[in-house]
Write a structure and sequence with these properties.
The chain is an alpha/beta fold. It has three domains: 45 residues, no CATH class; 168 residues, P-loop containing nucleotide triphosphate hydrolases (Rossmann fold), CATH 3.40.50; 101 residues, no CATH class. 22% of the residues lie in helices and 28% in strands. It contains nine helices and 14 strands. Strands 7, 8, 9, 10, 11, 12, 13 and 14 form an eight-stranded antiparallel β-sheet that branches. A six-stranded mixed β-sheet has the order 3-2-1-4-6-5, covered by helices on one side. The protein is globular, with a radius of gyration of 21 Å. The structure holds guanosine-5'-triphosphate (GTP) and magnesium ion (MG). Magnesium ion (MG) binds next to helix 7.
């Protein structure tokens, strides 16, 4: 019987129900939190402030012959690449796995996406001698399994640690590659809480807790709000042409104002985020009804010709020919202006 929960990796305990790792019976494989997520979609404990990375840092310091698989959510790719996670790699060889590409719209030109991603990776200084490969993949991508395992065999990598922001899909990729479904994945940030090793005949895959990205909008929403966002289905782009000053209310926590004579906005966001468009002159009346009360940050941009604005943890907006744009987002959420991804 393992002393750790086989879902999230935390050491089990039967003393304190409100703390991590609680199991009524230590013989159970899963802690109560994992059990509740699996069977009732109810996470019980918000783990966003509770994860520890000490074990992971020690492991990276002490282990040789290790390949780091950096998992990056394509919907937050710029946010990740701009972060200071580079320091974490230390002396280890690494690969970048750009995950969740199944979310991109069906008509996305993947060659162009690949070229644009490579440009971003280069621009942000990740193209170092330690970078051994870049793969685009998703959690059901069977062709990725063969491609990636061939690469591992050819280069004699046997031990891999999967690292990256919370929710990037580390656990899901390990489940795919190892065909071991006992590790728990879920859309609640910080599902995995400790290192966990899974082996198949050839490789050892280590799962790790997701790195905390304070600028990710998921840090600003409560768990029930996250439950209601559809991060699973392929995104259907929502396209708006603009001929005047307009305001957009997106769900109840984002506002975008744009002034343009002939421009466009294309939203690549979870499909079920409701977007309401109103004339800007009426926006102040709508705001009181449509935006929930919380602290917001306001960003202003001018002369947006043709670029993307990535909202960490949510998706991005492709903006064309907009003279002025204002974005109002939950306080602390990061927004990144970059070249077009699609
Ligand atoms: N559409 C899509 N969803 C994915 C993919 N990979 C993971 N997900 C979903 O994204 C959410 C997070 O996946 P996890 O595998 O738990 O992510 P993680 O990086 O292990 O997250 P933490 O353990 O919190 O650090 C889950 O709801 C998954 O179903 C993917 O390739 N495509
Ligand atoms: Mg995980």
């Amino acid at each position: 019987m393992s002393e750790k929960c086989i879902g999230c990796g935390i050491i089990k305990q039967n003393q304190n129900e409100s703390e991590l790792g609680y199991c009524r019976d230590l013989n159970q494989d899963y802690c109560q939190r994992c059990f509740r997520i699996m069977h009732y979609n109810d996470p019980l404990i918000d783990t966003r402030e509770l994860v520890s990375f000490k074990e992971m840092h020690n492991y990276l310091d002490e282990t040789d012959n290790l390949l780091i698989a950096l998992v990056v959510d394509i919907m937050s790719v710029s946010s990740f690449l701009k972060s200071d996670y580079k320091q974490l790699i230390k002396r280890h060889p690494f690969v970048i796995l750009i995950n969740k590409i199944d979310l991109l719209p069906e008509n996305a030109n993947m060659e162009k996406v690949e070229a644009n991603l490579l440009e971003l990776i280069k621009e942000e200084g990740w193209l170092t001698a330690d970078l051994k490969g870049i793969y685009l993949c998703h959690h059901r991508d069977k062709t990725f399994i063969d491609l990636f395992k061939d690469f591992l065999r050819e280069n004699e990598y046997q031990k891999l640690i999967f690292m990256g922001s919370f929710n990037a899909g580390k656990t899901s990729l390990i489940r795919l590659l190892s065909d071991n479904k006992q590790l728990l994945n879920s859309y609640y940030p910080c599902t995995t809480l400790a290192l966990q090793s899974v082996k198949d005949d050839e490789f050892e895959y280590l799962d790790s807790p997701g790195l905390i990205d304070e600028g990710n909008i998921m840090m600003r929403l409560d768990l029930n709000e996250l439950k209601n966002l559809d991060f699973k289905k392929r995104i259907k782009a929502k396209i708006y042409q603009l001929y005047s000053a307009q305001s957009y209310f997106i769900a109840d926590f984002l506002r975008l104002d744009a002034v343009s004579k002939r421009g466009s906005l294309v939203f690549y966001l979870p499909n079920n985020l409701d977007i309401k468009r109103v004339k800007q002159e009426n926006a102040h009346r709508n705001e009181a009804i449509l935006l929930k009360e919380q602290e917001y940050d306001i960003y202003e941009f001018k002369d947006c010709h043709n670029e993307d604005y990535e909202i960490a943890g949510l998706g991005f907006i492709a903006v064309r020919n907009i003279a002025q744009m204002m974005l109002k987002l939950p306080k602390g959420t990061r927004i990144i202006k970059r070249g077009n991804l699609l």
